[in-house]
Design brief:
The protein is of the alpha/beta class. It contains 23 helices and 6 strands. Helix 19 runs antiparallel to helix 21. It is elongated and about 90 Å long.
C-alpha cells in the first residue's frame, strides 16, 4: 500500500482529468481508426505495422493525422463538464491528461475551455498507465493531485492520486482504492440504459419494412402453414441482416449523424454505445442471418446476399449520389417482396413488381423531401453526407408525386385485368383500393410539404391513425373481393 503522505489543502492540488470515456463518451483512438479506415484506408496499413511493432504512440499519431474526428461534435459527458465548471469557478487548476494523441486532445480541451494544461501522447511516448502516473508524479508529486477517470487501466494513477473522481465503470473501484489509501471524493456513475442503447442500435422498429416478405402470400392467396413458416424465417433472417447494416450505417455516418438535430441521439453517435461494441455487433448479426438463411431455398439465400451487397454499397457510396440513392431504396423495398416469393415458392406477379417500384420510389423521394425541408429550416445548403441541395427541394416533390400516381395507375390497370378474375371471386371491390392508395400517397406528400413528416414515411405511417385506418380498410376490401359482400356478391360487379 502506498503511503498517503501529507495532504495539501484541497484548493492547492490540481484536478487531473482523463479524456476517453471520462470527459468524452467515446474513445479517440477508435474514432480516428474508424475515420482512417473509411476515408484513408492506405494509412491503416502503416498503422497495422506500428501495431505489430508495439509502437502504440506512433500508431495513434498516424491515425490522428489520417482520420481526425470533429472535436466540435464529439459527445461530452455533460455531468462531468458541469462538475468541472464548478471546480474552475472556485479557482481550481484543471489538467487534461490522456493517452490519446495530442493532435486530438488539444481541440477537445479548447472546445471545453476549462483546462490550464494538456498532457497527451506525442507520437513517441504513449501517455497511458504507468507512463501517465510517472509524468503526473514528476509534475505534482506523490499524492499531489486529484484524478478523475473511468476505467481499471487507470489504477496506477488513482493509487498515486490524493483523491479520486470515479466516472462510469470506475465507480466499482471504490473499495479497492480506499484500501490503497486514495480518498474517493466524487462518483459520477454511468447512466442506466446500456442494454437499451444496444437494442436501439438494431433499429427494431425498421423491421416493419420486412413484413413485405408476406405480401406475395396475401396477393397469391397462399396461407399454408409451411408457406407462413418460410415467410417468417425470411423475415427474421432479413431483420438480422438489416440490423447489421444499420449498425454499419451508424458507423459510416457518425460525423453526419452528430451534426443532425435528432440523429445525434443515436446510440453510437451519442456515445451510449461504443464504436468497439458496435463493430463487434456486426459479425454477430451477420452470423445470425446466415444461420437463419441457411434453411431457406437457394433463391432466397441469393436474394439475402444481394440485399447485403446493395445495402452495404448504399451505405458506403450510393446514398451520397443524387437519384441513385432513392432508386436504390425503392429497389430494396421491392427486393423484400421478391425475397418473400423466393422463400415461399409463390410467384411474384409483374403487376405487384410494377406497383412496388413506383409506390416505394415515391416513399424514397418523400424521405429526401422531408430531409431537405429540415436542412432548409436549419439554414444549411445541403444535407450532411448527401448530394441533394436546397434547390432540389422543388424537383423532389414533383418526382415523388408522379411516382405515387403511377403506382395508382398500375393498380387500376391490374384491377381491370383478367388476372384479378382468376384470383378474386368479386374483383369489383378492388376498385376501392385505387382511391385508397392515391389518398394515402397524396396525404403523405401534403404532410411532407407542411413539414409534419420528420423521418422515414414508413415509420411515420406506423404511428399515424389514418394510415392504420386505411390499412384495415384495405384488408376489408381484399376480404370482400375474395369472399363476396356478405351475401350480396353482385353489389360492385
Amino acid at each position: 500500500m502506498n503511503d498517503p503522505g501529507p495532504e495539501a489543502p484541497r484548493g492547492d492540488a490540481p484536478l487531473v482529468v482523463d479524456l476517453d470515456g471520462t470527459l468524452l463518451r467515446t474513445d479517440l483512438l477508435e474514432e480516428s481508426a474508424l475515420r482512417a479506415v473509411l476515408g484513408a484506408p492506405g494509412a491503416t496499413l502503416g498503422a497495422a505495422g506500428d501495431l505489430l511493432r508495439g509502437r502504440k504512440a506512433a500508431l495513434k499519431r498516424r491515425l490522428a493525422v489520417a482520420g481526425p474526428p470533429d472535436a466540435a461534435t464529439l459527445p461530452l459527458r455533460e455531468e462531468v463538464v458541469a462538475r468541472l465548471r464548478q471546480e474552475k469557478a472556485q479557482g481550481r487548476r484543471l489538467v487534461l491528461a490522456t493517452a490519446a494523441d495530442e493532435l486530438l486532445a488539444r481541440p477537445v480541451a479548447e472546445r471545453v475551455g476549462l483546462f490550464d494544461d494538456v498532457l497527451a501522447s506525442d507520437g513517441t511516448r504513449n501517455l497511458g498507465g504507468e507512463a501517465k502516473r510517472d509524468t503526473l508524479v514528476s509534475r505534482f508529486g506523490e499524492r499531489g493531485f486529484d484524478y478523475a477517470a473511468d476505467r481499471r487501466a487507470d489504477l496506477p494513477v488513482f493509487r498515486s492520486a490524493r483523491r479520486a473522481w470515479l466516472v462510469g465503470p470506475a465507480v466499482g473501484l471504490r473499495g479497492e482504492l480506499e484500501r490503497s489509501g486514495t480518498t474517493v471524493e466524487a462518483e459520477i456513475p454511468e447512466r442506466p440504459g446500456r442494454a437499451r442503447a444496444l437494442l436501439a442500435s438494431l433499429r427494431a422498429r425498421h423491421w416493419a419494412k420486412n413484413l413485405l416478405v408476406f405480401v406475395p402470400l396475401v396477393t397469391g392467396h397462399v396461407f399454408s402453414p409451411a408457406a407462413l413458416l418460410a415467410a417468417a424465417l425470411a423475415f427474421v433472417a432479413l431483420s438480422a441482416l438489416a440490423s447489421a447494416v444499420y449498425v454499419l450505417n451508424d458507423l459510416a455516418d457518425l460525423e453526419a449523424d452528430r451534426a443532425h438535430p435528432s440523429k445525434r441521439e443515436r446510440p453510437v453517435a451519442s456515445g451510449r454505445l461504443s464504436i468497439r461494441a458496435a463493430m463487434g455487433l456486426v459479425p454477430l448479426l451477420l452470423a445470425s442471418a446466415a444461420l437463419l438463411g441457411s434453411s431457406l431455398p437457394p433463391g432466397a439465400r441469393v436474394l439475402l446476399v444481394v440485399y447485403l451487397a446493395t445495402t452495404t454499397l448504399y451505405t458506403l457510396l450510393l446514398k451520397r449520389k443524387v437519384l441513385l440513392d432513392v432508386f436504390t431504396l425503392a429497389f430494396l423495398f421491392t427486393l423484400r417482396v421478391l425475397l418473400g416469393g423466393a422463400a415461399t415458392g409463390v410467384l411474384v406477379s409483374p403487376w405487384l413488381l410494377a406497383f412496388s417500384v413506383f409506390f416505394f420510389l415515391s416513399l424514397a423521394f418523400a424521405k429526401r423531401a422531408a430531409e431537405l425541408l429540415s436542412v432548409r429550416a436549419r439554414g444549411l445548403e445541403g444535407a450532411a453526407g448527401r448530394d441533394w441541395l436546397l434547390p432540389d427541394g422543388g424537383t423532389v416533390p414533383v418526382l415523388g408525386v408522379a411516382s405515387a400516381y403511377l403506382s395508382g395507375l398500375v393498380l387500376a390497370i391490374y384491377v381491370h385485368s383478367d388476372a384479378t378474375r382468376r384470383l378474386y371471386a368479386h374483383p369489383g371491390w378492388l376498385w376501392l383500393l385505387v382511391p385508397a392508395v392515391l389518398y394515402w400517397s397524396s396525404r403523405v406528400w401534403v404532410l411532407v410539404g407542411r413539414g409534419e413528416v420528420h423521418e422515414d414515411p414508413v415509420l411515420f405511417a406506423l404511428r399515424d391513425r389514418v394510415s392504420w385506418a386505411l390499412a384495415l380498410a384495405t384488408a376489408g376490401i381484399l376480404l370482400l373481393a375474395a369472399r363476396g359482400s356478405f351475401g350480396v356478391p353482385g353489389l360492385i360487379e
